[in-house]
UniProtKB/TrEMBL annotation:
It comes from the Bacteria. Residues 113-215 form the SusD-like N-terminal domain. Belongs to the SusD family. Pfam families: SusD-like_3, SusD_RagB. Its main location: membrane. This is RagB/SusD family nutrient uptake outer membrane protein. Residues 366-636 form the RagB/SusD domain. PROSITE patterns: PROKAR_LIPOPROTEIN. Transmembrane segments: none annotated. InterPro entries: SusD-like_N, SusD_RagB_dom, TPR-like_helical_dom_sf. Keywords: Cell outer membrane, Membrane, Signal. The lineage of its organism: Bacteria, Pseudomonadati, Bacteroidota, Sphingobacteriia, Sphingobacteriales. It comes from Mucilaginibacter pankratovii. It is found in: Cell outer membrane.
């Protein structure tokens, strides 16, 4: 029976390992055992890559709750033909349920990965790593560290979704009693402590940099492990998990409370210390904020466009030449055509490669700062009340908005990150095959006759805004599709700087070190320092002087800097702010109108369905029947 069980385990891995850089060789008949899988170094390395397999599947942003439920991007429903799985985007419309949960990462259903199965693979690797006799001590230590990291990250992924989870520290033996299989959920504090312990064990034996990038880029490094540890501890310290009264009644069946009853400020100190350690490691490995260096074919590049490209390429630059990228996943981002407006007549003809379906709500556009570096509803110099009036592009704004093109007034006098992140009617689209400032594309989206405007429901951007930041400026959508690929960041240095500033503010309030790390990010974005901007331009200048005010600033800064990167959805959850963001209707422009005054009328597309219960995923009803020791998350 034990041999049969081992054979089944290996066959599961064989079937699911297709996303690795290497593949398990199919063994001869009758030899599908763990002894074969770990008979030598090469076979053990193949098994190591199966431990990475589920991680590589996370490249699909449409299955990432941080991407599809953040409210940053929405997707049309009821498409009559399209290959995208719409499960994740549908959650904003109230489709989540406990009978068949969407993005079910507990069981591996409804566009979710079976993460517990991935953890089992990691345990099998750790249990059998001593079997290959030709494996060097150095490699063995590194592989063990990589697998411990993966095991930690898989637990963390589940914890962000479900909160307290069962901790699979070792695999149960085939002879285990049925009662041993009915595992209970660990407490929130136990869950995060175990994840951190695995990361602490892993970090010392991981390399600081990947020296053989051709063969190993994407494998885990020490800076990655330390940066993830900082994010884990910040998550544990945040309001969702740190003294959250919404879950006071959530207990295991033995009466053990699964959430801490009281807030613990010391958790933020742990997060701050971890973030500073991670920053030191990243900078020691040569990482720095990305700044665009123009290639030889771009002979003239004004500072305004250079800043735009610095922000855009911090995400879309290739990993091996991007000094800011801490961690990305190996498969390339597959949705550039969904994020690009049609810019030419040939692009309209070849519409199949450029569906343009990723739509950015009006609220996301209005989240970006003015050019003074403060929110547009706080900027004393910004005509917030008249923001929906019409204004014509002029010479002063020609690198952001097409000259002599009429667009809405709130598109003017905004920070460079908005122009780097968004495509909009009248907005300049540098690239797509044109790199001369004398001949740049701009978006025309008003009415069905415009290139980017509505064509049919399967190629319709439902708001009139595109997530430009997700498109490499060298990708061309015209007579066919010529994509310059990239890997969507999981973590980059700007996010780590802001995470440190957030944690430090929670510990000590708005100290000079807090503003120093915020200003590192703002300077690259072409903005003044946070104190100078609020002092000189905000209607609430005292905001920077209080912990609460600085918290609001940092939260908005992270949402702006990391917009569309599958991060804000997780941040808004841990801050318990997602319900506030999604309480506003999802709006866009009046797409079928051709005249500016008629087009620029906010139109409600749908109203999100999000309540307290949606902060955590439901466990599938059937799982609660099979395992009588499991308890459901509150309100489901």
């Amino acid at each position: 029976m034990k041999k049969i069980s081992k054979f089944v385990c290996v066959m599961v891995v064989l079937l699911l390992g297709g996303s690795c850089k290497k593949y398990l060789d199919v063994p001869p008949d009758g030899t599908g055992t763990l002894e074969y899988a770990f008979r030598n170094r090469n076979e053990a390395e193949n098994y190591l890559f199966t431990c990475y397999a589920t991680l590589q599947q996370f490249y699909d942003a449409t299955a990432n709750a941080g991407f599809v439920t953040s409210g940053e991007i929405v997707y049309p429903n009821n498409l009559t033909k399209h290959p995208l799985d719409e499960t994740g985007f549908g959650l904003l419309r109230g489709t989540q349920n406990s009978a068949q949960p969407g993005l079910n990462f507990w069981d591996g259903e409804k566009h979710g990965q079976a993460i517990f199965r991935s953890i089992r693979r990691c345990n099998i690797m750790l249990e059998n790593i001593d079997k290959p006799t030709d494996l060097s001590t150095f490699e063995k230590k590194r592989w063990i560290a990589e697998v411990k990291f993966l095991k930690a990250y898989y637990h963390f992924y589940l914890a962000r979704l479900y909160g307290p989870i069962p901790l699979v520290k070792t695999n149960l033996d085939i002879t285990a009693d049925a009662s041993e299989l009915k595992v209970k959920r660990a407490t929130v504090d136990e869950t995060f402590a175990y994840i951190v312990s695995l990361l602490d064990e892993a970090a010392p034996d991981l390399p600081n940099v990947i020296s053989n990038q051709v063969q190993e880029l994407g494998r885990i490094t020490r800076p990655i492990a330390l940066s993830v540890k900082a994010e884990v501890l910040a998550t544990a310290a945040s309001p969702l998990f740190n003294g959250n009264p919404d879950y006071n009644s959530l207990k295991n069946k033995d009466g053990v409370a699964l959430f801490p009853a009281t807030y613990d400020a010391a958790k933020w100190q742990l997060a701050a210390d971890a973030a500073k350690t991670a920053i030191t490691a990243c900078e020691g490995a040569g990482m720095k904020l990305y700044n665009f260096i123009a290639p030889a074919n771009i002979t003239v590049l004004p500072d305004s466009l250079r800043t735009v490209l610095s922000v855009q390429n911090a995400v879309t630059e290739k990993w091996d030449v991007n000094p800011e990228l801490i961690w990305a996943l190996n498969p390339t981002f597959p949705f550039q055509g969904y994020a690009t407006p049609r810019l030419t007549q040939k692009g309209v003809v070849n519409i199949f490669s450029n569906p343009s379906l990723f739509a950015v709500p009006l609220a996301t556009q209005e989240m970006f700062y003015s050019d003074k570096g403060v929110p547009i509803n706080e900027d004393k110099t910004f005509d917030y009340a008249g923001r929906y009036s019409i204004k014509t592009g002029d010479d002063a704004n020609r690198f952001y908005i097409a000259k002599n093109y009429s667009t809405v007034k709130e598109h003017f006098n905004r920070e460079p990150r908005m122009y780097a992140s968004l495509g909009f009617d009248g907005g300049i689209w540098f690239g797509n095959g044109k790199v001369s400032t004398n001949d740049m594309y701009h978006v025309e989206a008003r009415g069905i006759q415009s290139f980017a405007g509505p064509k049919d429901i399967n190629t319709l951007n439902i708001t009139g805004y595109w997530p430009k930041k997700l498109v490499n400026y060298l990708s061309v959508y015209d007579d066919g599709f010529q994509e310059t690929s990239y890997r969507l960041p999981v973590m980059r240095l700007a996010g780590l700087y802001l995470l440190y500033a957030e944690a430090l503010n929670e510990v000590n309030g708005p100290t000079g070190e807090v503003t120093t790390y915020i200003d590192k990010v703002r300077t690259r974005a072409g903005l003044q320092g946070v104190v100078a901007s609020w002092t000189n331009y905000s209607s609430n200048p005292g905001k920077v002087a209080s912990k609460d005010g600085m918290r609001q600033i940092i939260h908005q800064e992270r949402r702006i800097e990391l917009c569309f990167e599958a991060q804000s959805g997780w941040d808004l959850r841990r801050w318990k702010e997602l319900q506030i963001v999604l309480s506003q209707p999802i709006q866009g422009w009046n797409l079928y109108e051709t005249q500016p005054a008629n087009y620029y009328q906010p139109r409600t597309i749908f109203t999100s369905v999000f309540g307290v219960r949606n902060y955590l995923w439901p466990i599938k009803d059937q799982d609660l029947i099979v395992n009588s020791n499991l308890v459901q998350n509150s309100y489901w």
